[in-house]
Design goal:
By secondary structure, the protein is mostly helical. The protein has helices spanning about 15-30, 35-50, 55-60, 65-70.
Length: about 80
């Protein structure tokens, strides 16, 4: 656990929302401007509900591999 302290804990590479889900939501919900916050919230909720369960499972299943890559990169950027 010691390796997870410090900068590792804040890595966006280890946050499933950052490395997978936000790009899906952005593509589906933000392809057009929204006239108000309520419209954006509705679009994001709709996009979230349309994400296949398999996508969410794969995102979670990829986490150990991403964690190992982050540690190997000493917390720096990796692909």
């Amino acid at each position: 656990m010691r390796a997870l302290r410090g900068k590792y804990i804040y890595s966006t590479d280890l946050n499933p929302l950052d490395y997978s889900i936000w790009s899906i939501l952005e593509e589906k919900a933000c392809s057009k401007p929204h006239p108000n916050l309520d419209s954006l919230k509705k679009a994001l909720t709709k996009a979230w509900n349309e994400i296949p369960l398999e996508t969410l499972i794969k995102t979670v299943d990829d986490f150990p591999k991403r964690l190992a890559a982050c540690i190997a990169a000493n917390g720096e950027y990796f692909e």
